[in-house]
Amino acid sequence: MSESRVILEVKGLKKYFPVHRGDKTLFVKAIDGIDFEVREGETVGLVGESGSGKSTTAYCVIGMYSVTDGTIVFKGKDISCASAQRPLELKRDMQIVFQDPGTSLNPQHTIYKILELPLKVHGLAKGHELHDRIVQLLESVELPESYLYKYPRMIGGGERQMVAIARALATNPSFMILDEPTSSLDVSVQAKIINMLLRLQKEYNLSYLFITHDLSLMRNVATRVVIMYLGKIAEMAPTEIFFRSPQHPYTQMLLSSIPVVTQQEEDLKPKKIKSQGEIPSPVNVPPGCSFNTRCPFVKPECYERDPVMVQVGPDHFVRCNLFT
Amino acid sequence: KEVKPEDSIIRITEDWPVFIDPGVGSKFSDSIALVNTYDTLVFPKPDGTVVPHLATKWDILDNGLTYRFYLREGVKFHNGDELTAEDVEFSMKRLLDIGEGFAYLFTRNVAEVKAVDKYTVEFKLSQPFGPFLQSLVRLYILNKDEVLAHIQKNGQYGEMGDYGKNWLLTNDAGSGPYKVKEVKMEEYVLWEKFDDYWGGWDADAPKYFKLSGSVEPITVRTAVGRRELEITDELQPLENYNMMDKIEGVDVATFLNGHNLNMMLNTKKAPTDDVHFRRALAYCIDYDAIITSIYPGSSLSKGPVPAVLPGHDPTIPSFKRDLEKAKEELKKSKYYGKLDQYPVSLSWCAEAPEEEKLALLIQANAAELGIKIEITKKPFGSMMADAQKMETTPNASLVFVAPHYNEAGSMLMSRYHSSSCGTWEQMEWLQDENIDRLIEDALATVDINERFEKYAKAQKAIFDLCPTIWLFDQAEKRAYQSAYIYWPTAERALKKETGCLPMGYDQYVHDMKVYPEKRLALL
Amino acid sequence: MGINLLKRIGLSIFVLFGLSILIFFISRVVPGDPARLALGPRAPEWAVENLRQEMHLDKPLYVQYALWLNGFVHGDLGKSLVTRRPVTTDIKEFLPATLEIVILSAIVLLVGGVFLGIISAKFTNTWLDGLIRIISYLGIVSPAFVWAIIFVLIFGYALPIFPTMERLSPGVTAPPTVTGMYTVDSLLAGDMSTFVDAFKHLVLPAIALAMGGMAQAARITRSSMLDNMGKDYIAAEKAYGIPEGLVFVKYLLKPSLIPTVSVASLDIAALFGNAFLVELIFNYPGFSRYGITAMLNKDLNAIAGVIMILGIIFVTINIIIDFIVAYLDPRIGLAGR
Amino acid sequence: MIAQKASDNSAVNRYLENFKKAWYKFSRNKMSVVGLVIVVLIILSAVFAHFVAPYPHHAGAFVNYAEANLAPSWDHLLGTDVFGRDILSRIIYAFRGALTMGIGVLVVVVPIGTIIGLIAGYMKGTLIETVLMRITDVFLALPPLILALAVCAVMRPTLFNSMMAVCISWWPWYARLVYGMATSLRNEVYVRAAELIGASRFHIIFREILPNCLAPIFTKMMLDMGWVILTGASLSFVGLGEQPPTPALGTMVSDGAKYLPDYWWISIFPAIAIMIIVLAFNLLGDGVKDMLSTEE
Amino acid sequence: MDDLVKIQDLYVWFKVYGGYMKVLNGVNFSLGKGEKVSIVGETGCGKTTTMKTILWILSSQAYIPKGEVLFEGKDVLKMKESEIKRLRGRGAAMIFQDPMASLNPVFTIGDQLAAVISNSGIRDLDKEKIRQLSINALKEVKLPDPDRILGSYPFQMSGGMRQRICIAMALATERALIIADEPTTNLDVTIQDQILALLREMVAKRGNSLILITHSMGIARENADRIYVMYAGNMVEVSDNEELFSNPLHPYTEMLLSCVPKLSGGGIAEGIPGRIPDYLNPPPGCRFEPRCPYAFKRCREEKPDFFDMGNGHKVACFKYD
Ligand SMILES: Nc1ncnc2c1ncn2[C@@H]1O[C@H](COP(=O)(O)OP(=O)(O)OP(=O)(O)O)[C@@H](O)[C@H]1O
Ligand SMILES: Nc1ncnc2c1ncn2[C@@H]1O[C@H](COP(=O)(O)OP(=O)(O)OP(=O)(O)O)[C@@H](O)[C@H]1O
Ligand SMILES: [Mg+2]
Ligand SMILES: [Mg+2]
């Protein structure tokens, strides 16, 4: 696995948002120093609860946010700058599909216009070719040509997400970020989309950074899993190993919380760890380990010392005081 | 219901603003206020003569260069002070120093004024001034001490500060029959009867007098219908008078007042700088329609001076509509054939809504000759501002003009002498030396017959230049509560007596009577 | 809260400053010599020259502006050409009169509009709703002067229960001046009959003025109520057993008022603009009529003064309304706007 | 070739389809249709006033005091005014001024306000935004009617100048409306998406953001038509705007008001005309709002 | 069995332009006292509508051509005002789908809780008592610092807190039935777990009946005794919990289950082809027919009723006739 080329490398990435409370300025530490990498052809699953910084990570990588600190290296080039300063060709090579298909398509544009934009901006097709290419894109996401002149509101949520995927594909990117592409859809539609994404990955040799909070889904799509908690990575491991032996107490809590439909799955869950406590506000992260408010194994040192990442197996990293 | 003291009131509407300061006021509404608040040395009669008032008698000395007045004794100002020659002297000086209002009547002629003793005052003129006595109806006597006590430092008048102008905006220092009780800016001025008035009082004389600043027709008519207004203004549309006439107990008084309506033509601005063009305009207007349909009761003008004024020249013909003649004149003008390039701007005064009818009539008439008239409705304030410069003065302006004292000379001087250019009263910009000379000469003539002859000469000369189209001599209309007030002017009108009083004197409230019981009976 | 208020005020001062520049220069474009205008055409030249100096007309425009602004800050707006008094004196006299009308009008507008809106929403698609909607359409499409004329006709002739001109009936004397508003002053003086009389004089102009805004408010309230009726929380509140009547007048009304109140600041500001039409017709000596007279007569200082005062009022109303909206809608932080 | 034709055909069909759908939404409310019909009638009669008006010359330099103040009759359906002019004819001609005012003002004001609002909204947080919006605030701090009057007072009172005056006071409303929308739209995911694709600023402002502001803009325009006409009427009520003899609705009402109630037709009919034209645009505006609403 | 709720052949239509949206199409449903039942189904299949009918809070466009909804044996559709009020105040409470949307944004939590409590028919309430009850309710759902929360507005709360507040409102006073409409859709798994545990616990403690609506098969399995599967306005299958997962009968249930990603891996099935039918013109027969691989002629013409397969397992499919 480690043979294949690393195409994205994130090192010590930090992103703080200033928030104004009365006359004070505080910082939301949306990401607080994370390192991970994405290799060619693989799907890295980024999992974590709401507000843990998954989207922020994605937006930093894609350039929507400028980073506070750290570097992002894509195919050997440092791209730790905002999208406005990035070269056009980089934008071509890296694409994103957003969470909510309802808002990521301009309601005033037809599907044709939506798909036309990346082609035109990057000068990928002209005239007759343009039309053909758009039809071809639609076909690649299994939508009929008759959809060309429909408006997003006229089609279903799943189909909208497919259009968004087609738009991302338009520039032939090699790397795609999928920010919870199915979380607002039904299981049956989700199934369709996930299958299609996997097929496209094979077809075009794409690398995915797949963001979700659904571990069951992750189990079925990712090659490697990164678990985030409050802006930091809690655990990182290849999928197989991860589900076999989750190490971090948070990961275990997460896994044991998943509702499942078969006994067989039930057995895969770790011993029931009771989920407890609220996620602390990201403006006000407690000192020490940020999980200390909810951890069933909390030790006195957890209130003082922020753990560091340690390797516990091949490609398997955990950040917990229990392991140091 | 019982009669209350405040029911004994005469309420009159008139255009706002009302300046009750004798040094400032000069308009119609100001005159009404001044006439009732202040006394003058002499008092005008409808035939144009004057009778003793504050002055019991006078001497004219030095061939009309010195006038000596002997004052009535024991006349009291509203604050109880006695009126003396000092006050007369002060009032004249103040008027001249401030230079506004009626001052112009005196600035050219009065060289000196001096209190000879407590009850004698002497005016020295720099040149003879024939109608000096008549013009004295505009010298309102202020209480010197009271004014001086209310002077504000820091004004335009040097050591006199503001000359009491601020105080006199809302207060009076007079000796007249009514004393100012309340001034509500933009709303009304309320006077109360001055019980110690030297002239004495009739038992039915109004206890109060109020001048309201509204001329909105509906408001006026409503107020008349509710008996909350005794005498209306003269600016209502004809239709409104007709409607008010139908109200029980209300009549419309129609009387010639010595005013005329002028279409002043800017003689320095194309195309009205051409006398033929001006005459063409004069011949195309349908005068009959005006005096039958728009201003019924008014009469055709004969020249620059209204016919009721002493000194008018009756030999001057009226303009008549004659399209043939008009075309002829137009052909002679240098603008013939280029009429399109020379539209005539015509302004009318927003405060006199009936002028719009005239303006439109003139526009329609002129259109028959191919002359294009562009009409603008202008508030009087704007009109005055625009009159300041020849360039901003429109080609034609419709303006009512009133004499300031009852003689032809008043009209001639204020209308056609070069010194009045830049005022709203002369938007002709005539600036003709010959005319100036004729007017000055006439005014300097003490003998009345001689003077009138010279007036006639000046009138003819002006007529020949046709700087103005004199549309008609106005018959003033005012609706009034005939059922419960007695109004001398209305009575004169009913009796068809000739003559007229200077501006403001028709509303001399002292001579009116009110019968509040009769009013209550109507409610 | 305090900081936000200060911020808002700071911003408003900036806006007013901009406005002052705008207005000062507009008012100086007027043709004609203001000093000459002030004293009349026949005043002697030396007096005019003195006045010109006093008005700083001999100085460059920017100096004039600086001096004017300085005066403004110190409550000196120069003299009016029409009334010949300091503009500040005029404003002190006329502004309360208009404030009286506008305040009453604003109350009529808000209370009436909201009331009609509620009724209309409550009885959606009934004849009552239809009637109210027709009335609101008429209100919106008729200018205030048409209403004023209609009222004068009705109450001047057919139904003389309300006076149709001026601020007080003949014979009634004005109460001692405290605020300048006759209704308030007469109450302060404990003079009930004057109060009643003054109030009666306000009724018609205020209603005529309020008609348009009231109709607008009724429409907005109605549609926002209908809008909110479909919201989950209304269903939820009903489902929790809260009586429908209570849900309607409390839980539905408050969120529904937000758009109405937000728009009200504009409506109320517009009241000042339209007041002159009404003041003209009711012969009511108010601030707006004063302003219009000033404009028509090219009375510079008065124009500038009136517009600045209106600006201040507008900005103040805006701040107040923002606070009310913030009270109604806790989600809006004041800094947000 | 055939394929080309087929697609052309479908394009036509598509437009037809869209049009049908729009009409369907618009006509759901019968009142909107009534509004549309009235607006169309008014526009037609204004354009063809010369043929529609029974006495076209009464709109020009014409007086006939012999026939003044005639009550409505078959000769003069709405009566005659104090100058003896046919009121119906004058109303029809006055529509010209009213429409010119409404259309003229909006044509100027909407693009200016929209562009300023878009730029300021998209550039939120920059100096450009601050400058643009503070200027807007300054103009907003005055009731439109007052500002228009002030401007009119300084300039010569003509229709053109009063239009200018109204424009000066009107554009900030559009700037503010569009600014508000643009600030929230620029955070929309699809705008972000376009940025990430590498689209130009121009594209983002005018292709992504602008189309989404159009519905409220159009709706406001339709409603504003009425307001502008009312403002124009109020201006002409105090004598600013169209000058005689050209008829203006506000002037007709204000002049005629003097003769109420005896000669009621002189002002009541023009007042009704104002109400009708404003009402019609309001109804039309409601319809446009329905039509542009995105709900299916 | 002693049914608390019994819905029989319920049709609910919505009047929209162009006709009626025929949403509910003969729903049959029953719930015993103290029972926990779950309804699962895709988005838009009519779960919420069914529940709203029980509380009679349908929007004004709703039209009910046919059917009855019995609550404690009384037909809700024929109830008098006062009975409805009692039903809402004491009988049943609903926790709404979206906790943000179901809390009034402009009133404090305290205000809203107080309103619920004071209108529940409990006697002798004074301000202090209401406050005490409110605080207790918040404590019961394990919200920290209830005093502060009472004075806060909904937008100041996190999603999990809001949902707990909704639960607190529903459980603040005694009621026989709690309807939880997708109470955890917008929440994180761990928080979801906490909320569901809380709900289970509270219901158990009070012996309430519970209807849990969800589109997650997993949640249904872990929280209910019985499960109804709903599709396009029909209940298509009902059975005991384990039975349904081990032996799904209806083709729809079967396909739906296959789409759920499994923790055990093994990929995901292809999904169900097609879309939910257009409610304006639904298919005349079985509404699943257009998407059903087993469909035959009868499915196109006739609407299937429940066929009892024994053990309380019923399925509405002609395959089993
Ligand atoms: N523009 C912003 N300004 C301030 N705070 C922000 C901003 N964007 C995100 N945050 C905060 O940063 C934290 C991380 O947010 P992020 O959207 O990355 O979380 P997430 O893991 O994607 O959550 P979700 O699953 O809800 O999408 C959150 O607490 C969020 O409130
Ligand atoms: N008031 C209404 N007017 C028109 N249609 C409605 C109305 N309420 C619901 N519907 C329609 O009824 C159908 C069923 O809605 P319902 O909310 O009951 O579905 P649901 O199963 O709860 O879906 P979800 O899982 O999304 O909550 C939907 O297609 C919806 O569009
Ligand atoms: Mg996210
Ligand atoms: Mg639902």
Automatic annotation (TrEMBL), chain A:
SMART domains: AAA. InterPro entries: AAA+_ATPase, ABC_transp_ATP-bind, ABC_transporter-like_ATP-bd, Oligopep_ABC_C, P-loop_NTPase. This is D,D-dipeptide ABC transport system ATP-binding protein DppF. It comes from Thermacetogenium phaeum (strain ATCC BAA-254 / DSM 26808 / PB). CDD domains: ABC_NikE_OppD_transporters. The lineage of its organism: Bacteria, Bacillati, Bacillota, Clostridia, Thermoanaerobacterales. Keywords: ATP-binding, Nucleotide-binding, Transport. The keyword Oxidoreductase does not apply. Belongs to the ABC transporter superfamily. SUPFAM superfamilies: P-loop containing nucleoside triphosphate hydrolases (SSF52540). It comes from the Bacteria.
Automatic annotation (TrEMBL), chain C:
It is found in: Cell membrane. The keyword Signal does not apply. Residues 95-325 form the ABC transmembrane type-1 domain. InterPro entries: BPD_transp_1_N, MetI-like, MetI-like_sf. Keywords: Cell membrane, Membrane, Transmembrane, Transmembrane helix, Transport. Belongs to the binding-protein-dependent transport system permease family. This is D,D-dipeptide ABC transport system permease protein DdpB. It comes from Thermacetogenium phaeum (strain ATCC BAA-254 / DSM 26808 / PB).
TrEMBL record, chain D:
It holds the Pfam family OppC_N. Residues 95-285 form the ABC transmembrane type-1 domain. Coiled coil: none annotated. The keyword Transmembrane applies. CDD domains: TM_PBP2 (cd06261). Signal peptide: none annotated. Keywords: Cell membrane, Membrane, Transmembrane, Transmembrane helix, Transport. It is found in: Cell membrane. The chain crosses the membrane at residues 33-53, 98-123, 135-156, 263-284. GO terms for cellular component: plasma membrane. It comes from the Bacteria. InterPro entries: BP-dependent_transpt_permease, MetI-like, MetI-like_sf, OppC_N. GO terms for biological process: transmembrane transport. SUPFAM superfamilies: MetI-like. It is a multi-pass membrane protein. Belongs to the binding-protein-dependent transport system permease family. This is D,D-dipeptide ABC transport system permease protein DppC. The gene is dppC1.
From TrEMBL, chain E:
Gene3D superfamilies: P-loop containing nucleotide triphosphate hydrolases. It is a peripheral membrane protein. Its main location: membrane. GO terms for cellular component: plasma membrane. One of its GO terms (molecular function) is ATP binding. GO terms for biological process: peptide transport. It is found in: Cell membrane. Residues 5-257 form the ABC transporter domain. InterPro entries: AAA+_ATPase, ABC_Ni/Peptide_Import, ABC_transporter-like_ATP-bd, ABC_transporter-like_CS, Oligopep_ABC_C, P-loop_NTPase. SUPFAM superfamilies: P-loop containing nucleoside triphosphate hydrolases. Keywords: ATP-binding, Cell inner membrane, Cell membrane, Membrane, Nucleotide-binding, Translocase, Transport. Belongs to the ABC transporter superfamily. NCBIfam families: oligo_HPY (TIGR01727). This is D,D-dipeptide ABC transport system ATP-binding protein DppD. The gene is dppD.
